[in-house]
Write a structure and sequence with these properties.
Layout (H helix, E strand, L loop, with lengths): L1 E7 L5 E6 L7 E3 L1 E2 L1 E4 L2 E2 L4 H4 L9 E4 L10 H7 L2 H5 L5 E4 L14 H4 L1 E5 L2 E5 L1 H11 L3 E3 L11 H21 L5 E6 L5 H12 L5 E4 L11 H9 L8 E3 L5 H10 L3 E2 L2 H9 L1 E3 L23 E3 L19 H5 L2 H9 L4 H26 L3 H17 L1
Parallel strand pairs: 4-15, 5-7, 7-8, 8-11, 11-12, 12-13, 13-14, 14-15
Antiparallel strand pairs: 1-2, 2-3, 5-6, 9-10, 16-17
Helix pairs in contact: 2-5, 5-6, 6-7, 7-8, 9-14, 10-13, 12-13
Length: about 400
């Protein structure tokens, strides 16, 4: 893995290029990691992955813990790793155990034993050597060390414990050294500025390829995040990539990019798709959201609910100017019908559109950073959305 910062601004926003051995072209950052279930997006089949913008869509995020049911790690290793098993030879795979699975430490014994996670097989104790064995067998391009993520309402003492455990598990992972992929050190600390800074400072001292910032989206207020992100980013070296989970809304993505984050997870897209929502916010280069058709029923000015009866006879695409496979071939009425008859094709078409739309959103953001107008873009985007909601 190789990461290069191409342009950075004093505000914190930056654009870069992430080169991964299996990807034919560098992935421009800030970028979206496509969240997967056992290596593939939840509803997009491998043949339809090629319909998404390339190479923006070539970075997949997987949780090793999802593989505790089904094929064993040993079997995956014998096949040749995840790339070989999935047939996705030109895609990058990032393994993050915190993907939709929260660490729930036991009251006793985890100091030396490991972490207790809720997994598809129930609650299991995962030791660093168990985790590293999974990583070694799967052979991802990059992977994040184990992290003790805690909700925002825990005590300062519990936050300190989570930082101590996370650092200890990182040291264990580095000592075991599977020789597979590039390790990202985990940074936690909840809403405690001192613990966040302490964790970041300690991880920055380790020999890691990048940084995975965990513990966000677990109850903290959005207004708390700028200070927390600054406390972390200020002590991290500029030449290494930074990944974060838990920031999904467009405003949250912009907040993270303003702080200097390079990689984001996409569980927000899965949540939207399951709910029947299609993203419709404007991708105007200025960030302006005023031109939205406010009369649409089943809309909150960001997305529309395609389960709503108002779309039963709507023969238009989700967005007229969208170039995704769904909008080029199908109508709102058809997707509404698919939901009514409980066909999974509804989720397939919807996830294609939502993923495509969010990837385009990141493209517009990168252009704004390159042109030196990101702050203006962000302020216009947020302000116009606020006025629309209040109007």
């Amino acid at each position: 893995m190789k990461f290069v910062v191409k342009k950075a601004w004093s505000s914190g926003a930056r654009v870069g290029a992430l080169e991964i051995g299996s990807c034919p072209l560098p992935i421009e950052t800030p970028a979206l990691l496509l969240s997967t279930r056992k290596g593939l997006p939840h509803f997009i089949s491998p043949d339809l992955l090629s319909s998404l913008p390339s190479p923006d869509s070539h970075l997949l995020q997987v949780s090793p813990l999802h593989f505790l049911e089904g094929l064993s790690s040993t079997t995956i290793s014998k096949i040749g790793g995840l790339h070989q098993m999935l047939g996705l030879h030109q895609y990058g795979i990032a393994a993050v155990a915190g993907d939709s699975i929260h660490c729930l430490p036991e009251s006793k014994g985890t100091t030396k034993l490991g972490a207790s996670f809720e997994t598809p097989c129930g609650r299991l104790l995962i030791k660093p050597n168990d985790y590293l064995e999974m990583i070694s067998c799967m052979r991802p391009n990059l992977w994040a060390a184990l992290a003790d993520e805690v909700p925002a309402w825990v005590s300062d003492k519990r936050n300190k414990t989570s930082v101590d455990r996370t650092l200890r598990w990182l040291d264990d992972c580095l000592a075991l050294n599977p020789g597979s992929g590039s390790v990202f050190g985990a940074i936690v600390g909840g809403p405690n500025l001192d613990e966040r800074k302490r964790c970041a400072e300690e991880v920055a001292k380790r020999n890691v390829a990048g940084y995975w910032i965990g513990g966000f989206g677990l109850g903290e207020h959005i207004d708390e995040r700028p200070a927390l992100l600054s406390a972390i980013i200020d002590v991290l070296p500029n030449e290494k990539p930074r990944m974060i989970c838990g920031l999904g809304l467009p405003e949250e993505i912009l907040q993270g990019i303003a702080a200097g984050i390079d990689l984001f997870d996409s569980k927000y897209i899965y949540t939207l798709t399951i709910g029947g929502f299609a993203l419709t916010f404007s991708l105007d280069k200025s960030g302006n959201q005023y031109n939205f058709q406010r009369s649409q029923i089943g809309s909150d000015l960001t997305k529309i609910n395609l389960r709503a009866t108002v779309y039963r006879k709507d023969m238009s695409p989700i967005l007229g100017n969208c170039t995704c496979y769904t909008c080029q071939n199908h109508t709102k009425a058809y997707i509404n019908h698919l939901f009514n008859v409980h066909e999974m094709l509804a989720q397939i078409l919807l996830e294609i559109h939502n993923t495509h739309h969010y990837l385009r959103f990141f493209h517009v953001i990168r252009e704004a950073i390159q042109d030196g107008r990101f702050e203006k873009f962000r302020q216009t985007f947020i302000e116009s959305r606020r006025v629309n909601f209040e109007g």
